[in-house]
Amino acid sequence: MEARYEMLVNGKMTGGSRSLDVINPATAEVFATCACASREEMEVAVTAAAAAFPAWSATSLDERRAVLIKMAEAIETNLDSLARTLTSEQGKPIGDAQGEVGGAAYFLRYYAGLEIPVETIEDSDARRIELHRRPLGVVAAIVPWNFPVLTAVNKIGAALLTGNTAVVKPAATTPLATLQFASLIKDFVPAGVVNIVTDNNDLGDVLTGHPLVRKVSFTGSTNTGMKVMSSGSATLKRMTLELGGNDSGIVLDDCDPEVVSQQLFDSAFANNGQVCIALKRLYVHDSQYDAICEKLAEIARAAIVGSGLQQGTQLGPVQNRTQYNKLKSLIEETRKDGNIIAGGDSPDGPGYFINPTIVRDIADDARLVTDEQFGPVLPVMRYTDVGDVIARANNTSYGLGNSVWSSSVEKAGAVASQLDSGSVWINKHGDIGPDTPFAGAKMSGVGIEMGMHGLLEFTQAKVVNYAKAANV
Ligand code: NAD
Fold first, then answer.
1. For this structure, is 457 an active site residue?
2. Which of 41, 43, 100, 242 is flagged as catalytic?
3. CA distance 402 to 279
């Protein structure tokens, strides 16, 4: 077993009064333990972040930029080791883990390059009105298990650049790479400015209800998001909630099945389908339905499923036992709802593996279609009328993303304009980046992350209104 990972509280790596066993989903065995906080220890971290806020918020933007750049350098120098930890706890193929960790450094460099704008609302003979942006205070950053490093670092970058301090809480099944990151930054981030504290999926409410926390930046499921919002209401916390999704893809009648199918497969099965913006429901025009189903099944059967540390693995295990069991029962239920034409089973041996599964001839009211599956199982539905399929795609309480696929960008654009989601992609799915605002419509979220719009959610607007004539 590897060394015990510790938490970062008030500038020091510290053990907790509890500990957490972390399972490698490729073996289903514990491979490391880490510190785990009690409620009181989580409170200590919040207090440390609050105490650090006055000095940190008084630093210049350039000083804060320099800290973000140092964080990016620390990640880049330790990229391979962080990626190995990430694959061991999360399951994703090592190349994808390197991509996630490298992406985290890239996000930090992006934030470090931003200005915090002062907007002039009016500049007339009578008055000058400016809109300034002030930091809020302590930010609680609550993170899920699918992209633990990138999600945590994205929140840290935006929070710190705008002058806030942060308490970061990883998911209980994927804390290690984030704690490793903590140990890399502890010597140059001022004490209390970033605290990284682990729980056993039981201390989120300490953060969301704490009077010293001024903003919650939460990424996770819609159900938990609702609890977060209610818990923060007594102190009217600012909230950014990035929640679940059930993204559709609509394939118009003019695509080449040979060309489009690989892209559709990748959009649905990246990170083993455990992506908020994975393609989760695919609607294909009647004229190409059979050909695309067959091609998707062919790709699925050929996919290499295995340990993320093994060379050549394309799809790793599902991240945790709860999610694995949920998917297995969903697949069993799907046997009566549709035709499974690839996968539906697990390879022999230990670990939370599920072969990539393609389901056809399934109705829109089957649970695999109505619920967020969050795993390597894709339902493919048939349609004939474009107006009808738009209504079917919109018939969900989720609204994270959708995509339209067509050889005519104009035709696709006309469909895209009628889809009710925070993002819509044409001839691709799930393309996001630090400079692109990311929002959920309906029950998929509140507010915006990333880009300048996302950055400003970490600030309080403050209007400064001057009389021009000094008649006092
Ligand atoms: P989850 O909601 O169970 O957990 C997310 C985080 O919330 C974890 O750190 C968990 O410990 C914490 N938490 C649990 N109960 C809490 C409470 N009462 N108060 C505060 N925090 C609490 O989600 P998950 O299973 O870890 O992640 C999968 C879900 O996340 C999927 O629904 C997925 O779509 C969603 N997700 C959304 C985005 C996005 O940007 N929209 C990105 C990634 C994942």
1. no
2. 242
3. 8
pLDDT value, residue 3? 58
- pLDDT over 80 (residue 471): no
Q: What is the pLDDT of residues 237-278, one digit of tens each?
A: 999 999 999 999 999 999 999 999 999 999 999 999 999 999
Segment 339-347 mean pLDDT: 98
Indicate if ligand 1 lies below 6 Å from the C-beta of 371.
Answer: no
What pLDDT score does 21 carry?
97
Mean pLDDT value across the chain? 97
